[in-house]
Amino acid sequence: MLNFSFENQTRIHFGEGQISAITNEIPRDAKVLVVYGGGSIKNNGVYDQVISALKDHTWFEFSGIEPNPLYDTLMKAQALIKEHDIDYLLAVGGGSVVDGSKFIAAAALYAGDDPWDIVAKQQKVESALPIGVVLTLPATGSETNIGAVVTRDGNKLPFMSSAVRPQFAVLDPAVTLSLSERQISNGVVDAFIHTMEQYLTYSVNAKVQDRFAEGLLQTLIEEGPKALLAESKDDLEVRGNIMWSATMALNGLIGAGVPQDWSTHMIGHELTGTYGIDHARTLSIVLPAVMKVRQQDKHEKLLQYAQRVWHISEGNEEQQIVQAIQLTENFFQSMGMPIRLSDVKLGESDVDVLLEKLELHGMVALGEKQQVTLPVSRQILTTAL
Amino acid sequence: MLNFSFENQTRIHFGEGQISAITNEIPRDAKVLVVYGGGSIKNNGVYDQVISALKDHTWFEFSGIEPNPLYDTLMKAQALIKEHDIDYLLAVGGGSVVDGSKFIAAAALYAGDDPWDIVAKQQKVESALPIGVVLTLPATGSETNIGAVVTRDGNKLPFMSSAVRPQFAVLDPAVTLSLSERQISNGVVDAFIHTMEQYLTYSVNAKVQDRFAEGLLQTLIEEGPKALLAESKDDLEVRGNIMWSATMALNGLIGAGVPQDWSTHMIGHELTGTYGIDHARTLSIVLPAVMKVRQQDKHEKLLQYAQRVWHISEGNEEQQIVQAIQLTENFFQSMGMPIRLSDVKLGESDVDVLLEKLELHGMVALGEKQQVTLPVSRQILTTAL
């Protein structure tokens, strides 16, 4: 395995009824800004639970964070923070609300002129307001990690800083029961692909990390479809297993000491930035094509994936790999996801647009060995047509 | 899965050459006490690396921590701490040195009259000196967790406090190359049994935790024997996989949200306290007997263990379980461990002595459902004869 440093200081409170834990997690004298999205938390009881837990705190609220949170929206929170001297953010929502809160927290204490530089120029974030999270949509892992993605003018760009790692995260599987099928599908597939991007590279004989990743993949394959079926969709054990998988998929643990390949995400970001396609639905389109185009480079891990995750033993190595890619596509489709650009009504002319965006954003050497150059990205997108 | 809260704030620096990381981990103005054991670190280069990393720090040293660290030894450090106004402990060693340092750290700031009350009366530890760790023997997981075990007058007793969780831990697999075969065997089997005690209970459908535990067990089964073979014992990848498995086995992660059964450890502690048998060698004797005596209670997880960890598919369920227990014993023996009381020259008369010790220490209702009463412990020890 490769040398690594790892830490994850976020405290987790997992299970039904755990929202009440925020009472003791947030200092009693804090001035709290509750940050949320479109208001669904007011219909599913989450808002009421949060307010009840904060009844002895001073708090304000900022809503309207959209999926793929927009810079302009997030900057509107700054006036509120100054006006009320806010010193704690409580993000109540999914990955977009958490990511948005991270940017708000960093921008509030940013010493430079323009907070957009945090993503556009990758300016280092030295400090940020403390953040707590009540997660409502298991998917991105943002609730315990240091990353966030922000969008402006069709540019969807990431930043990372340990200053924005949440202090605590409440994971109550019961709050996910009110999610739509599409949200569940997106979440399961997003977590699956986060795992794949830290796993499907080349072997460095990191047996623990490999087996942890395989365990997450198997769990998501088993539990994901159950969360869509009438007879099991309200099963809290299923929801709990999905929720914990999604957090573990991107808390840094399975990626510590192994090579990583985030090319699927980077290409996917251009699909979202340009055409507004749901994040996870861009990934389910791009990953199968990455597996096919880079089959030689990833041969060893693809074979391990076929044998350990899908328990394929028939056929020669290449046949096993082809079968595993097919089963991956079947899994995505069983979750109601698109697996081709044509599934989202895009075609050859769009490939050129996407290539230009990749070039514009400097995404010219992606992947575990920086081998995904623009021509390789073109091949991937063409394979995904 | 069960509700849980989880945190682990220890920063990990993993890999060859990482001892140098302590330079920046310990505040430059700290007065550091370097705590170690019998001096093996002076022969294998670890001491020199530590000293080199601390060349701009003020530091003192306290050596002589024995395996199963003794209260009287640990209390000797207190005078040194007062004399030099020590405010940071650096534990350099295996689980005993780390556990001993945790007790030293807690005793230094203990507000009560007698620090022995921390273990004897389970007095709450509210604060402790900060601790850093350079781990030399992968086994106990103490380097990132909140537990420690201390021995006095043949009584080996645990305490837990988040105040003693190390701030950081350096895990350099290269420093384990100088360990004896016995130390390696003990470490691998200790980590294996830590995992089993959080896994082999009853199912709460915690798929992630189960698969992570199975991944650790499989890794230890694969890598443990290689660390003893002439052709692979110096393989740093093998050592690295063992080291990371041992840390992950008891950092709280696989035990979060699942029932636990620490009866093997509690019975084993009496064997060490009374007869001075190596900790891990008590576990390899007790665990197989626990598996046999509690086969009905643990049927479901024993079967899962047989099928997923040992890939057993032939025979009926009971036959698969019996085979898995046999393979577990074979694994312990391949690691050079005893699996019966007779292997360490103990017999029926000793069972009475051990039962008295268990009663004395209040160990009268052990296990995941408190069903391991003294008669059941007798049955376990008799089965282990």
Secondary-structure map:
Two copies of one chain form a homodimer.
Chain A: E1 4-14, H1 22-25, E2 31-35, H2 46-53, E3 58-62, H3 71-84, E4 88-93, H4 95-108, H5 117-120, E5 131-135, E6 147-152, E7 155-160, E8 168-171, H6 181-199, H7 207-226, H8 236-249, H9 263-275, H10 279-293, H11 299-309, H12 317-334, H13 348-360, H14 374-383
Parallel strand pairs in A: 1-8, 2-3, 2-4, 4-5, 5-8
Antiparallel strand pairs in A: 6-7
Helix pairs in contact in A: 3-4, 6-7, 6-8, 6-10, 7-8, 9-10, 9-13, 10-12, 10-14, 11-12, 13-14
Short characterization:
Chain A is of the alpha/beta class. Helices cover 46% and strands 12% of the residues of chain A.
Using the CA coordinates, give the radius of gyration of chain A: 20 Å
Identify the biggest protein-protein contact and residues per side: A-B, 40 and 41 residues
Q: Based on the structure given, which CATH architecture of the largest domain in chain A is correct?
A: Up-down Bundle
> How would you sum up the global shape of chain A?
globular
The proportion of residues forming helix of chain A, as a percent range, comes to 40-55%
Q: Any idea what the CATH superfamily of the largest domain in chain A is called?
A: Dehydroquinate synthase-like - alpha domain
Would you identify the regions of chain A where 5 or more consecutive residues have pLDDT less than 50?
A: none
- Say what the CATH topology of the largest domain in chain A is: Dehydroquinate synthase-like, alpha domain
Report, as a whole number of angstroms, the end-to-end distance of chain A.
36 Å
Count of helical stretches of chain A:
14
